[in-house]
Design goal:
Layout (H helix, E strand, L loop, with lengths): L4 H21 L2 H33 L3 H25 L6 H30 L2 H16 L12 H30 L15 H21 L4 H29 L4 H22 L6 H32 L2 H17 L10 H10 L10 H12 L8
Length: 386
């Protein structure tokens, strides 16, 4: 089946998030190359959204003008930050902090698109229309500028200025790539596209580091909390649900870790309860810090256990090919769960959580029955998280 526009754009949001992590973790030439891939993907992705998705959403969304004007303002600010980062380069002392600011802004922007535009498209358009829109986005990306151009955010401006800017950018990229290849040909280095999968153990650990980074930001910069809480909820919920659907069943059956997975699932349930509570708590209140501290303690404990027991055992028991295949499934599932709210899992996912926790549930069980059953299971055997 052909991809639809929501799948395409969600996948690109995940690639953007992963590229931010690559840039942050890399050094030297690797950081320059990862940053170059990030710049190109952000530039063509935003241009295609501005030409195809935003004009449609402006027409069909309730209050569409206000929603899209806000998205365009966010994109303009992101382009300004990205242009400044290109100007100073990855070796500049200010680069890491400015990159973090851009990352927070871009992830929040993506979260809002997924909750308004993407959700509406998924609910109101049939598959054939969504597939046609995906083709339109792909076409727009082929002619989009590959570097940010602040001030070119509307469809008209993109259509008029896009081809000229695209030609300029792509000539510049061709020259840059040729120089890079000439310089690296002696040692055999090659620049490849962003990795869309990988070893599932590595992917999970990258997500863990991202959540830890968000925790640090929430603790260190209280003024950012209104912006960062939705991002944390999006990242942590999608990660947990993908683990529960794809990874935990394999670890339980093929890596023979039934008890460990039942314990990990209970920890997931506790973390999700605290995350849902955090999203409902005012960032300016004293209670926010209390809930945040409990959530950090709960997740940190879970990560330490998972990285010392479940993940090493998976490396031992699963072949490299099996871990790579599971990595692709994990990335796909994570993308599908992006935008879901903590504490609001669908019934079929509650059944998955129950199976992971070692519960034998009836197929006729209602959502309320499953929720109560899981709440009781969550309270059993947890230490240091309440």
């Amino acid at each position: 089946m052909s991809e639809d526009v929501v799948e395409l754009l969600l996948d690109q949001h995940m690639q953007i998030r992963d590229l931010f992590s690559q840039v942050e973790q890399a050094t030297g030439k690797d950081r320059h190359e990862a940053f170059g891939r990030l710049v190109r993907l952000l530039a063509v992705h935003e241009t295609a959204e501005e030409q195809v998705v935003h004009p449609l959403a402006r027409r069909v969304l309730e209050g569409g003008d206000g929603v899209i004007d806000e998205r365009l303002h966010e994109e303009h600010e992101a382009k300004q930050m990205l242009s400044k980062l290109e100007e100073i380069g990855p070796d500049h002392d200010d680069f890491p902090e400015m990159l973090r600011q851009l990352r927070d802004s871009v992830l929040l922007h993506a979260h809002r698109e997924e909750h308004y535009e993407f959700r509406y498209l998924r609910e109101h358009y049939e598959p054939a229309r969504l597939q046609a829109l995906a083709m339109a986005v792909r076409t727009a990306e082929k002619t989009a500028p590959t570097h940010p151009h602040p001030g070119v955010e509307t469809m008209t401006e993109n259509v008029v200025a896009g081809p000229v800017l695209s030609l300029f950018d792509r000539v510049k990229d061709t020259v840059k790539d040729a120089v890079s290849k000439a310089m690296s040909s002696s040692d055999g280095n090659q620049t490849g596209p962003a990795n869309e999968g990988g070893d599932v153990v590595d992917l999970i650990m990258v997500d863990h580091r991202e959540v830890e980074r968000l925790f640090d930001e929430l603790k260190s910069h209280p003024e950012k909390r209104p912006l960062l809480v939705p991002v944390l909820a999006m990242v942590l919920t999608a990660h947990s649900r993908a683990e529960e659907v794809e990874v935990y069943p394999v670890a339980r059956e093929k890596a023979e870790q039934a008890d460990e997975i039942a314990h990990s699932q209970r920890e997931h349930l506790e973390a999700e309860r605290l995350l849902a509570q955090l999203t409902r708590t005012s960032p300016q209140s004293k209670k926010f810090d209390q809930v945040l501290d409990k959530l950090i303690k709960s997740v940190t404990h879970h990560v330490q256990e998972e990285e010392s027991t479940v993940l090493p055992r998976m490396r031992e028991q699963l072949s490299h090919a099996a871990r790579m295949k599971l990595g692709r499934a994990f990335v796909r599932s994570r993308r599908e769960h992006m935008g879901e709210e903590p504490g609001e899992a669908r019934k079929e996912h509650l059944v998955t959580q129950a199976h992971n926790a070692g519960l034998d549930v009836r197929s006729s069980a209602s959502k309320d029955e499953l929720t109560k059953l899981l709440a009781r299971k969550r309270s059993q055997g947890l230490t240091g998280t309440n």
